[in-house]
Design brief:
about 525 residues; alpha/beta; 2 domains; six-stranded mixed β-sheet; 13 strands
Length: about 525
């Protein structure tokens, strides 16, 4: 359990804010070593200890932003996934090439907990720690899921090489020779991970666009978007008008479109005449479309979180609706069965509906794949829009609730890696941080300090080239799910056979031979 807890903490340190990615394979190796030689139930318990140490640390920002109860509940649910992998380890250890099967099960677990229960929680996938490392370019070829698998495989192979063996004179050479296949596999895995850094996938540039991201800042408390919702819109109007003045004076280039963040209008702009007028004023000042982040009513019981293309001539038009609302943050699951009226949950009076759009937005003649806040952590949101022809990516986010925590840096790292995976430039706008402009190789072209008004007006590359990761789509996840099922079935058979072989001979014979039935009584 100590090894498991240490491994979980090491894995957490691989992510922001510490961001020591070299600890990632060490954390996975500790998980494998800690569960080695245990029964199924004990390995499951040790795996859960690993998950507790990792996840409670990894999303500690939720305690300070949302609440201790939400932090404990979510961390506990997510940590159970690592307990499930722990349960599987004694079965998979019975198979040849067990690190391969273990990596598939680990990756499948990440996929399941990223989508279930409800919309899941993708935070903590191994691939999300890879930005600013030599292995980051590999995500262009294999996607987030494939990169997680390769990183997990490297960690399990490291554990196979480090696994203690018999000691004594001449035993070291024997152990090294017995593990030669693992050494070769480890070298091949490292080569596959690093090779794309030497030969990166070339994305053809088909044009350029100038895009302005507006970070208007929040009036009042920096972590409460609803403290003065109309004031937030006013701040973004002022920043946009300042940009329009700079463009008119020749200090800034004319953007092709402007990106406002999520919750730049936290009240319905179609019901609130003041907010509606301010948006029209901003669009008229710029003379180009503004993608407005708006909360829009959908009847008495529901709302929509949308990115709305607001055109200077035709007004509001094309829309993207957030696909992954946060359960117990933006909607209450099974409200008809349980309708909580206490704490922060009592503030959720209307449930947010999920969007289903898979086509990019058309913004000023540019095909833009939009994602709203946590959407960027889900594979299908960006992949489907890029496959449908998106030339660049846009992220509208509202991290005000997390502005004093490390969540904003974790999300920014995921956002950068998503740009690499898609081979697209990316612009992210947030009300008060962290906004930025990111190139297709993940490098940051411009960023704004948190909790300050800022305008990022940058030229970005456009492309229609589909990377191998986009072409693969959801198939890596399906493949690893299938491998996991096969590995668990084969491992269960081998595990049962091993336990039967370990029984005393008289017990094994008694189990193998059918017992003689008792004679029936005579009439």
């Amino acid at each position: 359990m100590l090894i498991a807890a240490g491994g979980g903490l090491a894995l957490a340190a691989a992510f922001e804010p510490i961001a020591w990615p070299f600890l990632l394979p060490i954390g996975v190796a500790c998980f494998a070593l800690a569960t080695d030689g245990l029964s199924v139930r004990r390995a499951g318990l040790v795996g859960w200890v690993f998950g507790i140490a990792f996840y409670f640390t990894h999303i500690y920002w939720m305690r300070d932003s949302i609440g201790t109860d939400a932090w404990i509940a979510l961390s506990t649910v997510e940590s159970l996934g690592y307990g499930a992998v722990g349960l599987a380890m004694p079965l998979l250890r019975r198979l040849r090439a067990w690190p391969l099967w273990a990596a598939a099960v680990w990756t499948a677990m990440e996929g399941i907990r990223s989508t279930w229960p409800f919309s899941g929680m993708p935070w903590g996938r191994l691939s999300f720690a890879a930005i600013d490392t030599p292995v980051a370019p590999a995500v262009t070829y294999v996607g987030m899921t494939g990169l997680s698998f390769l990183l997990a495989l490297g960690g399990f192979l490291l554990a196979a090489l480090l696994r203690p063996g018999p000691a004594g004179p001449g035993r070291f050479a024997a152990r090294l020779g017995g593990r030669g296949s693992y050494l070769v596999a480890f070298a091949v895995t490292v080569t596959v991970l690093i090779a794309p850094a030497v030969w990166p996938y070339q994305v053809e540039e088909t044009g350029t666009a100038t895009v302005a991201a507006i970070q208007g800042n929040l009036p009042g408390p920096a972590n409460n978007i609803l403290y003065d919702a109309r004031g937030v819109t006013t701040n973004h109007l002022r920043a946009t008008e300042q940009l329009a003045d700079d463009v008119a004076a020749g200090r800034e280039p004319q953007p092709d479109f402007v990106l406002w963040p999520e919750n730049s209008t936290a009240v319905d702009p179609f019901d609130d005449s003041v907010v509606n007028a301010e948006i029209n004023q901003a669009v008229e000042a710029m003379g180009v479309p503004i993608v407005v982040g708006a909360i829009v009513g959908d009847g008495e019981d529901h709302v929509l979180n949308q990115g709305i293309v607001w055109d200077p001539e035709t007004g509001p038009g094309d829309r993207y609706t957030k696909q992954n609302p946060v359960p117990y943050g933006e909607y209450i699951p099974f409200r008809d069965v349980w309708d909580p009226q206490f704490g922060q949950l009592s503030l959720i009076t209307r449930d947010m509906k999920s969007g289903t759009r898979t086509e990019p937005l058309e913004v000023g003649g540019i095909a833009v794949a939009d994602a709203i806040c946590f959407d960027i952590a889900y594979d299908d949101v960006v992949t489907e829009q890029v496959a449908a022809g998106a030339e660049m990516l846009a992220v509208q986010t509202s991290n005000a609730s997390f502005i004093f925590t490390d969540q904003i840096e974790q999300q920014f790292a995921i956002t950068r890696l998503r740009a690499v995976e898609a081979g697209r430039s990316l612009v992210v706008a947030s009300p008060n941080g962290r906004s930025g402009v990111i190139a297709s190789d993940g490098s940051v072209l411009a960023t704004a300090p948190p909790r300050t008004p800022a305008v990022l007006n940058e030229q970005v590359a456009l492309s229609t080239t589909l990377t191998p990761a986009i072409r693969l789509g959801a198939w890596p996840g399906r493949l690893f799910m299938l491998l996991s099922v096969c590995g668990l079935v084969l491992g269960a058979v081998a595990y049962r056979r091993k336990r039967e072989d370990a029984l005393p001979p008289e017990v094994a014979v008694a189990r193998a031979e059918p017992s003689t039935p008792a004679p029936l009584p005579s009439p």
